[in-house]
Amino acid sequence: MPSPGAGAPIVQPGAPGEAPREVPPSRVDALPQPGFTAADAAFMQGMIGHHAQAIEMTGLLRTRTASDDMRKLAMRIEVSQADEIKMMQHWLEARGQQVPGVHAMHMHATLMPGMLTPDEMSRLAAARGPAFDRLFLEGMIKHHAGALTMVQQLFKTPGAAQDSEMFAFASDVDADQRMEIDRMQEMLKELPK
């Protein structure tokens, strides 16, 4: 029994049919830690390209909208996704995994969920003013919904997202994208018909 104020004991489950055992504090660091899986690495690699397209979309906005609210939204998306790309690149490098270039996903025939097709990107680039704003919001809502799909697929993969950084990042992506989708849906309602 631990002494008062010593904290809760650490118990390691036993193999099937074996009793659990208490692990002394001096041995905790030696316990195996959950690692990353191929699905974790593929998620990070795919999300880099996914985020790169969102940044490309926000770059179009600078010269095609007259709305300060749209510019503020784009700045938030661009800053957060650029920071996340750096984090994902570091995560992959630290684990000895291939780090794709930020535009690598544009070269693949199969787009990640929610990504705009080359034709949709061309239509967005050709639009101006309120027509651009509508296409941008609709496209970015679709794009963010695709990121949610990618997170759901990751969490459904056996053994994936056990790495603490991976779990925290994927959970943050889910929460942030949902919040931005709600904000963009409200902005879409306010656009002139």
Note the topology.
Elements: E1 10-12, E2 21-23, H1 38-61, H2 68-94, H3 118-126, H4 129-156, H5 164-190
Antiparallel strand pairs: 1-2
Helix pairs in contact: 1-2, 1-4, 3-4, 4-5
Descriptive keywords:
mainly alpha, elongated, Ferritin, 5 helices, 3% strand
Report on the architecture of this protein.
With 193 residues, the protein is mainly α. The protein has one domain: Ferritin, core subunit, four-helix bundle (Ferritin, Up-down Bundle), CATH 1.20.1260.10. 60% of the residues lie in helices and 3% in strands. It has 5 helices and 2 strands, in the order ββααααα. The chain has helices spanning 38-61, 68-94, 118-126, 129-156, 164-190, and strands spanning 10-12, 21-23. The chain has a two-stranded antiparallel sheet. A hairpin with an 8-residue loop joins strand 1 (10-12) and strand 2 (21-23). Helix 1 (38-61) runs antiparallel to helix 2 and helix 4 runs antiparallel to helix 5. The termini are far apart. Residues 1-5 have low confidence and may be disordered.
